[in-house]
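This follows on from our talk about sequence and fold. I would like you to pick a protein and set down its sequence and fold. Go ahead and set the record down below:
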Amino acid sequence: MNDTTSQPRNDAPAPPSALVPCTVDADGIAEVRLGRPDETVVTLTRERILALADTFAALARDPRVRGVLIAGPCPGMFCAGADINLIAAIDTPAEGAAAAAQGRQTFQLLQQLKVPVVAAIEGPCVGGALELALFCDVRVASDHAATQIGLPEVKLGIVPGFGGTQNLARLVGLPTALDLILQGKLLKPKPALKQGLIDRLVPSPRLLQAARDELQKQIAKGRKHRRRRLRGAAFWLSKTPLRALAARAARKELGKGQARFYPAPKAALELCLQAFTLPPAQGFEAEAKALGEMIATPVSKGLTRLFFLTERSKKLGKGDGARNLTRTMVVGGGVMGAGIAGLLAQKGCPVRLCDVSGSALARARARLWQDLGKRLRRRNLERHEAQAILDRMATATEWGNLRGVDLWLEAVVEDLGVKQKLIAEAIARGLPEHALIATNTSSLPVDKMAANVPNPERVVGIHFFNPPEKMPLIEVIRGPRTSDAAIATACKLAVRLGKFPIVVKDAPGFLVNRCLAPYLNEAARLLVTGTDPEAIDQAMLDFGMPMGPCRLLDEIGYDVAAKVSDVMHKAFPERMVPNPLFAAMVAAKALGSKSGGGMFAVDGKGPGPGRKVLATLREQAGAGPTASRSELHTRLLYPMIDEAYRCLDEGIVASEQDLDLGLVMGIGFPPFLGGITPFATREGLQVIVTALDSLARTVDPRFAPADGLRRRAVQ
């Protein structure tokens, strides 16, 4: 086997970098690896793109080469796309456009080769990696569990810039390209084959041989592979004026909800249209220009910062003493317990869900099967895989033998006495001394649950948010006696479940509920003093929240809100006096979505039964004027900012990064802002302090800002 890197030729450029190993065998098949064998994660850095350009140029000049195979460096890894540090370092549109042009021109060298090129895809093939593969003649993928294919650039506030919008739209048609690019979807191999992103799917052990077979087929034909033609609806909605229908539907969706705050999907839509209205060279030029414009926006910078925060969070599960938890038991078959148990089963962890109510357990299994049914209908799961998941979740009204359990987690009613009794019972029944004891409490002290536990260092809070299957954050609560190993183990579990953990001090409300309390309390006060729930919610939706505070109260439940507000009032009696609305709604049994509606109907549309309760309270209080949009902004958001900095100063979390990730992932603080602390900085800390001081004088002393916020405002 000859190596082009070790035997430079006079008619070839300088030897390519070791970043991109390349060999040419006796049959004239050049094999280009996108990274070194020791690289388990490959990204497209500036240096690697330059190395690829040198490699492709060398292959174009090498007369031995009859075909080219592009593969990743090792099993389970193709390429994870462009280096995010490279994206973060670009500050101007001109820099961004130049970087896009350089990457695309490098990948175009593959298309310009006179010999066929086949991509052998196993593992992540996302972003720039897929854009490289789209310049190949044929794409063969393996069924490896790590294989994912797509263009997720919009999630970083940018558009595909290395030819992705143009090549993908022409390959699969406008409707499919828009569906994939505008949502940043990542597909598993089978859906990717169905959608046309890849040409062939093979078992993992056969990938390289299958890719070579494809090369030999094209070599035998004496030409490069011809791109397949669009047919049926893909043709009519792409290459005829009917594409305006697809564009109109996409524009309508991009004007709704949070999508309206993100410019990148709108730009990507226009680029995909241009794939059918402009010559390729002009389409590529427009794409590079659009990438440059997007990459310099505050939205892109905010989303890029958030990406780094999520990567930082994933590392928490790699701390000293972190263990794999393999046999778990969840006590409590209600909404939270059922969701947690189902999530554990879906992520490959055998779990026993226990509850005294057989009907609750039946509902839990039905809920899991409903979720699996959705995945089956979308063909993201095979039936035997769904059955295996269902089999991993055992249910029982009796606990049975606890000797093999290494995680015991309770998700029962928020009552300290009940939780303490269950923990004591688990220990008495033989729960192993090494087993992690976890509570899903949202407000109760973890340390009190550990008070009478042998080896109390193993007691930890693992606070999921509702619904556990969807909400991305887990607060890992460190009690005064919780060990580092227990924290690391809980974080490792969170990462395994696809969540982002943050470590939080054991204190009333922890982080998310502590910061959420003044926000929801203030919304309730504004309601009682005369502002309509529609106006309050619309103000926060227009700010970028995924849901307004009144609708959020309906989803949380007024009974839960009342319990949490009582806990917060005991801890912070001057700032967090519960509003009478919570108790009144509980008394009227207008608990929210779970009991026929709250301020809104169950479906969130139209008034709910809570309006009668509100009318009575307004009559008793003497409703005042409706709050203006600017007043709503100030009264709802500024106390949350103040509370966040109080949490930081009290050591509830260790850093501003934890604040930002926790509030974005926990309450939906707008991701495009990059977090609550960057927003506060842009808003102006002195502006916030001045506004809170004014509210403290004119409305209520509870608005007075903390010393820590004052100190930061004058720095």
Summary: Confidence is low (pLDDT under 50) at residues 1-14. The chain has three domains: 22-296, 318-505, 512-651+684-713.
